[in-house]
Amino acid sequence: MTVSEIINITMMQGFAGLSLFAVLLLMGLGLAIIFGQMGVINLAHGEFMTIGAYTIYMVSTFVEARFPGFVAYYFPFAILLAFVLAFAVGWLAEWALIRHLYKRPLDTLLATWGLSLGMQQCFRTFIGPKEVSPALPEWLLGSWSPQEGLDIPINGMFVMGLTLLVTVCVMLALYKSRWGLRVRASVSNRMMANAIGINTSRTDRLTFAIGCGIAGIAGAAFTTIGSTGPTSGSLYIVDAFLVVTFGGAASLLGTVASAFGIAQTQSIAEFFLTGSMAKVLTLSLIVLILMIRPQGLFASKVRR
Known about the structure:
Layout lengths: L2 H36 L6 H22 L7 H23 L8 H22 L16 E5 L2 E4 H23 L1 H11 L1 H6 L4 H23 L11 H14 L4 H21 L2 H18 L12
Antiparallel strand pairs: 1-2
Helix pairs in contact: 1-5, 1-8, 1-9, 1-10, 2-3, 2-8, 3-8, 5-6, 5-8, 6-8, 9-10, 10-11
C-alpha cells in the first residue's frame, strides 16, 4: 500500500468520523439543553430522534406515491416537519410527565425510561418492527472526488452543513434571544429569575421541547446514513450522554469538542480494530480523562 493510498484511506475514515460527529453533535446539543440547562435525565431522547427519522420516511413514502415529481425537493421541508413533530411531542411529554418530577432525578430517569419503552412499542405497532429507509433525492446520492482514490459522500457533506447550521442557530438563540436570556437566568438563580417575573415553568417546557426538536433534526440527518427501526434512537443515547458529560454538562462548546473527539477516535480506531474494541478504547479514554477532570472538558462557571 502506497503512502498516497494510506493518506486517502485516512481522510475517508476521518470523514466517516465527521458523519458520526454530526449525528452525535445534534443529539448532544438537544441533550445538553435538556440535561445541562435543566438537570433532567431524559432516557427517551433517542426516541425523539426516531420520531424525526420516521417523519422523513413517511413524508418520503407519501411524496413518492402522490407527488413523484416533488421527490427532489421534499427533504428540506421534511426536516422542518421532523423538528416540529418532535418539538410537539416533547412539549406534551414535559406537560404531562416531566414537570411533575423536577428535582427528583431518580424518578425522572425511571419515568423517561418507561416513556422510551412506550414510544418504541408505538413505533412497532403503528409503523412496523422492520427497519425502513426513505427514498432520498438524487442530489443527496453519490460522492465527490477531489482527487483520484478519494471519494467523499455527498450525503455526509449535507449532514455536516445541516449540523453547522443548527449549531449556529442554537448558539445564537441561547446567547442572543429572549428565550436564551431566560434559560441562563433560570440556570444561574431560579428563585431570583422567578422574582423578576420570568415564568420558569414555561421556560422549562419550551427548553425541553426545543431539545427534543433538535433530536428530531438528528433523526432526519440519520436517515441519510442509515436505516431506521423502533430502537434506532436508543443505540445513540449512551453516546449522546457521553458527549454531554465529557464536554461539560452545561457547556455547548464542550458538547461540540467532545462530539468531535469521540467520533474521530471511534472512527479511526474502527479501521485498525473491530467495532466493539474501538468502542472499548473510546470509552476507556473518556473514563481516564474524566478521572483526571471530572467536571468535563469545558465546565461552566455557574453561581449557585
